[in-house]
Specification:
By secondary structure, this protein is of the alpha+beta class. It has 16 helices and 23 strands.
């Protein structure tokens, strides 16, 4: 069974800030949501090799291939070599100025001869609603296109070569040959079924759209500011994060895929095509660090709209257009990636309580203000509500950062992020003269610190722990110095890092979120999370272990695929696992790269772009009360 599936590392991402697709190294589009990130997939072979459907381009007599993105773009180039010649395929979603509200909604594949002559076979098998609905395929000779219609979905397919409609197999099939300098183009334009417009786009127009797309991505990269250290990886990670931004709304999806497993054959398979508040704030902070301060406005408006301006109505995640109800369903007709079932769409975590989101939002708004964005009266009313919510709820248990599905617990990270909400709210109110119960906020902030120090530290080992009253460790504790709660070299934090390296690390490199003994309400194994592994790099650097941190960072970067893309997890002996590419991992890569460059160039008091956040944290870390444990 496993031979029918490509490794997750085989895939490349293409997208247009509305929708996304994954292209395998052998030239097959095995996953594509064409109208928007969270709509039913049109190609779904990634989750069922037999029923899912795909768009294949096969070079006959293939002897070898290589691929890369065109420099500083999300346009994929795959070069195929045969005994008779060489050809390349350029894959992208077409982009244009004004595409935020008027996208082409077009997937474009341009096959171009480079040397000699290469023969290709093309097979297009659309399957709507995640493979559940083989569409009605038709040829439109007068318009020179083909169409696929079913349910509320439609796709218009244009091709420079003739295709045969195979009604029995529900596919389009064709063959063509290319000599050097010649092109064969394929265009898929998505629409609602009742809005379908079977009309061919000329080859000249498609060539212009390809050039527009290349130029669009390069203009976007040119607006950023990237240091020389690890520039290629940081640019690639930024391009991934931009591609996962929903242009019309400002939301950011966690990943473009659903149900890629954390462990092969396991049940920890989740739909990540939604906007997590936490992930989005950290993504935007990473884009700030890469020189894109303007990305914040759309997300701020998204949060204010989806909560109707009321902090009390804040959820931890939303649909990418602001949907609040995301019922979790199991698609029983799909076998799952390499037999990993169930396949899920929707995400029940939308109904969970995760108290850290208050701190994530306040920290983000605080950083945004430091980067020059003014805080309006309406924004402050919303932020003040978040601070008050943190003050009112911090004593309550929750499901925590990792969305555990067992009983709520008093997670240390959640308490600390409530502390962050109060701390950032106080700093903004004091510095900008904004109204609020400042004295009450100060008392609550100190109460949280006192409770974390009393109940969140193991008295024997002297380290922070996952939850009050538990001896277990948690990778989220690595964030405590990154948000300024403790100094990285504070004895309890040093002990925490030592214990994490001892109990949660594999091969001295990869970090688990927590041990398998923890009851998280789920069956199966807990894997190694790449973002937590990059967090450890940052903390080691902050502790002065810079050479070790840089060596570890270099080894971690080697775990990405040949295109510098990373999934959620990596398992020794297996490779990349989990949804792909994962925004959170690429956020952590940018953070670690910037931290290393910052400390290498300027030392602990630098004021680089990311240092606007770090410098304020470091100032707080120098306070004596934060350097040493309070005496009790």
């Amino acid at each position: 069974m496993s031979r029918r599936y490509e490794p997750i590392s085989s895939y490349a991402l293409i997208g247009d800030c509305h929708s996304a697709a994954l292209v395998s190294a052998r030239g097959s589009i095995d996953w594509a949501c064409l109208r928007r990130f969270d709509r039913g997939a049109v190609f779904c072979r990634l989750l069922d090799a037999e029923k899912g459907g795909a768009f294949e381009l096969r070079a006959e007599g293939l002897q070898g291939s290589r691929r890369s993105y065109l420099e500083e773009t999300n346009v994929l180039e795959t070069v195929f070599e045969t005994a008779e010649g060489r050809a390349r395929v350029l894959d992208c979603f077409t982009m244009r100025k004004g595409g935020r509200t008027r996208p082409y909604q077009q997937l474009l594949r341009v096959v171009e001869g480079l040397e000699g002559e290469v023969s290709f076979e093309v097979v297009i098998e659309p399957r709507f609603d995640y493979g559940a609905l083989p569409p009605w395929l038709r040829s439109h000779p007068a318009e020179g296109v083909y169409s696929a219609v079913g349910g509320d979905d439609a796709v218009v397919i244009g091709a420079d070569c003739p295709l045969t409609v195979d009604s029995a197999a529900v596919r389009l099939h064709g063959r063509f040959k290319l000599r050097a300098g010649r092109r064969c183009r394929f265009s898929l334009v998505a629409s609602m079924a009742h809005e379908i417009a079977p009309k061919k786009v000329s080859g000249r127009s498609l060539d212009r759209r390809l050039e527009q797309t290349i130029a669009w991505w390069r203009r976007w990269v040119a607006r950023g500011s990237y240091g020389p250290e690890h520039r290629e990886q940081v640019v690639r990670s930024a391009l991934v994060l931009k591609a996962l931004t929903c242009a019309p709304t400002g939301a950011i999806v966690a990943a473009p895929t659903s149900s890629l497993p954390e462990v092969l054959g396991g049940a920890r398979n989740w739909d990540y095509r939604y906007c997590w508040v936490r992930d989005s704030t950290l993504t935007l902070s990473a884009l700030f660090a890469a020189g894109y301060p303007d990305v914040a406005r759309g997300f701020k408006l998204f949060i204010e709209r989806t909560t109707a301006g009321r902090a009390a109505d804040l959820q931890i995640l939303y649909g990418c257009y602001g949907e609040r109800r995301l019922p979790e369903l199991e698609l029983e007709h799909l076998e799952g990636y390499r037999g990993s079932r169930p396949v899920r769409v929707g995400n029940a975590a939308a109904a969970q309580r995760q108290l850290d989101v208050f701190g994530e939002l306040l920290d983000f708004w605080h950083l945004s203000e430091q980067m020059g964005a003014a805080i309006s009266e309406d924004e402050w009313r919303f932020l003040r509500g978040l601070v008050e919510a943190a003050r009112a709820l911090w004593r309550e248990p929750d499901q925590g950062l990792w969305e555990m599905r067992g009983p709520p617990r008093h997670f240390v990270h959640s308490k600390v992020m409530c502390w962050v909400a109060l701390d950032r709210g106080l700093e903004l109110a004091e510095r900008l003269g904004l109204p609020g119960d400042l004295e009450g906020w100060r008392r609550a902030r100190e109460e949280i610190r006192s409770e974390v120090e009393r109940h969140g530290v193991d008295p024997g080992r002297g380290c922070f722990v996952q939850a009050f009253g538990s001896p277990e460790l948690d990778a989220s504790l690595l964030l405590l110095p990154l948000v300024g709660f403790v100094h990285a070299n504070e004895p309890r934090m040093v002990a925490t890092v030592e214990q994490i390296e001892k109990e949660l690390c594999a091969d001295g490199l990869l970090v688990r979120r927590y041990r398998a003994q923890v009851d998280d309400g789920l069956s199966g194994e807990e894997g190694y999370f790449l973002m937590a592994s990059f967090w450890l790099v940052e903390v080691l650097a902050m502790q002065g272990r810079l050479e070790e941190a840089e060596e570890r960072f270099g080894r971690l970067l080697q775990l990405g695929n040949d295109l510098r893309l990373f999934a959620e997890e990596h398992r020794p002996g297996v490779g990349l696992l989990g949804n792909f590419p994962q925004a959170f991992t690429h956020v952590a890569i940018i953070g670690a790269a910037q931290q290393l460059a910052d400390l290498r160039r300027h030392g602990p008091w630098s004021q680089t772009a990311i240092g606007h956040r770090a410098a304020a944290r470091r100032q707080r870390q120098e306070e004596p009360s934060l350097r040493e444990p309070k005496k009790r």
